[in-house]
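dumping this here so i dont lose it
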């Protein structure tokens, strides 16, 4: 802990916004059949969260996410070595642990923005299985 009581150890949470479970399908189906670019979806999520005003209006800590390609191990939920479309690895959102914005404090806003992005960006996904 620092002199001010905050934990400044360099710990990051890496994750991707996928949305497949919200639709009841696999990530693979979302990417191949419905041609959803999970890297782009994650980038859009990071941008939307960082521009959101939700926490600022409520006078609570507001999360700030960064994002970059992860050339190491991808998020556990991905189950693959990076994005199939990009050999450089998956684009991940990154949240620094510690400081005033603890994950449990900002998770409601992160979830709200994730739901909004999924609703908007995956609205085109047609789950009709008429061809089966």
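and the seq i came up w/
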């Amino acid at each position: 802990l620092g002199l001010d009581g905050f934990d400044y150890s360099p710990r990051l949470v890496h994750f991707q916004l996928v949305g497949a479970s919200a639709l009841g399908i696999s990530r693979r189906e979302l990417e191949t059949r419905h041609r959803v670019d999970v890297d782009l979806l994650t980038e859009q999520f990071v941008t939307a969260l960082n521009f959101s005003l939700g926490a600022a209006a409520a006078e609570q800590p507001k999360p700030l996410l960064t994002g970059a390609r992860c050339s190491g191990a991808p998020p556990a939920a991905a189950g693959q070595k990076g994005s199939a479309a990009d050999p450089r690895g998956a684009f991940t959102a990154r949240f620094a642990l510690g400081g005033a914005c603890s994950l449990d404090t900002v998770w409601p806003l992160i979830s709200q923005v994730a739901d909004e992005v999924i609703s908007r960006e995956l609205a085109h996904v047609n789950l009709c299985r008429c061809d089966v």
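The helical segments are 20-23, 27-32, 38-51, 54-57, 103-121.
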